[in-house]
Each structure stands twice: as structure tokens, then as C-alpha cells.
Amino acid sequence: MTDDQLVTRRAVLGVLGALSVVAAGGGLVTGAPGTAHAQALGQNESVQDTMKRLFGDKPIKDGAAVIKLDLPLIAENGAVVPISVNVDSPMTPTNYVRHIYVVADKNRIPLITRVTLAPEAGRAFMGANVRLGETGDVRAIVEQSDGTLLLVKREVKVTVGGCGG
After folding, report:
1. For the chain, which has fewer Cβ within 10 Å, the N-terminal or C-terminal residue?
2. Max intra-chain CA distance, the chain
3. What angle do CA 154, 160, 161 make, to 5 degrees?
4. Which CATH code, of 3.90.580.10, 2.60.40.2470, 2.60.120.260, 2.60.200.30, is assigned to 46-158?
5. How far is 136 from 132, CA to CA, in rounded Å?
6. What span, in angstroms and rounded, lies between the C-alpha atoms of 17 and 151?
7. pTM
8. Beta carbons of 133 and 78 less than 8 angstroms apart
9. With contact defined as beta carbons under 8 Å apart, do 150 and 142 qualify?
10. With helix as H, strand as E and coil as C, how does the chain read?
């Protein structure tokens, strides 16, 4: 490797680093909590506000017949709580699960995750380890391709807080 190549590589890395800093700096908002940026992320938002922001006034039906929400009844460590959502859906181009949302009522940011699916997935399933701040309900909301919303929820008792508690 010659000195010219080394300098060029360093220059490229330097430019990439500078662009990363600029991009990160552009996304920063200084100010007190509760600014528009924090609210856009759903921080310190009530569950009702989160549900309204996500689904508006659309009716949400009971999904116990088609949604299996699997998570422990007691979470010994709220920082790592395994969860899975399995939906009984044909996953055809005309009838499939479009999104699976997981919402924790007592978290500072209630919306934990949103999984986007397509018919090609073949199966409407998601699994993850999530963080729960304290004891409360965890909801799985399924949005089908026709816009229908289905919901199941379960209370999880957290013995050690996962969000700094």
C-alpha cells in the first residue's frame, strides 16, 4: 500500500465520520423533555394517546380467537422479557397480516415495536425480548390487510424494573 492510498483512505474515513456527526447532530433536539421531538417518539405519552396516534378512531375488535400472545405472567427481570405473537392468518395476497404492534401500558414509551409483514412471509409471527418498566398490561394489536384491527392483552408482573428501575 502506498502513502497516496493511505491518505485517500483516511480522507474518505474522515469525510464519512464528519457526515455521521452532522447527521446525528441534525437529529438532536436540545431543550427540556416534552419537546416536539420527544413527543414524536411517543415518550411520556399515555397509552390512550399512543393508540389514538397509531389507529385514530378505528374500531378495535377482540382478537383472542386468532392471536396468540405468549409472554410470562411474572417477569423476574423487566429488562429482558421474551414475547411472541402468533396470528392465525392465511397470509394470501388478499388476506394477510400487515402489521403487528406491541404496546406496554406502563412504559415511558408505550409502543415497544411494530413489525411489518407481507404475504410472502408465509406466517404471521414475531418474537423478541422487550423491556418493561413496571407491572402492567402488554397489548398485541394486529392490523390486517383490509384495515381490521384485532387486540389481545395480558398483565405482566415485573419484579425488577427494566427501564432503570
Report:
1. N
2. 67
3. 75
4. 2.60.40.2470
5. 9
6. 44
7. 0.73
8. yes
9. yes
10. CCHHHHHHHHHHHHHHHHHHHHHHHHCCCCCCCCCHHHHHCCCCCCHHHHHHHHHCCCCEEECCCCEEEECCCEECCCCCEEEEEEECCCCECCECEEEEEEEECCCCCCEEEEEECCHHHCCEEEEEEECCCCCEEEEEEEEECCCCEEEEEEEEEECCCCCCC
Cell numbers linked to 76: 423476574
Instruction: Identify the weakest region by mean pLDDT among 17-26, 48-57, 58-67.
Output: 17-26
165 pLDDT higher than 70: no
Spatial distance between the Cα atoms of 72 and 80, rounded to a whole number of angstroms: 11
| Of the candidates 112, 105, 113, 115, the residue with the CA atom closest to the CA atom of residue 158 | 105
Taking residue 47's Cβ as centre, other Cβ atoms within 10 Å add up to 17
pLDDT at 104 > cutoff 50: yes
**pLDDT tens digits, one per residue of 9-33:** 666 666 666 666 545 544 444 444 4
pLDDT digits (tens, 9 = 90+) for 89-100: 999 999 999 999
Provide the Cα torsion 151, 49, 137, 127; round to 10°.
60
1 or 8, higher pLDDT:
8
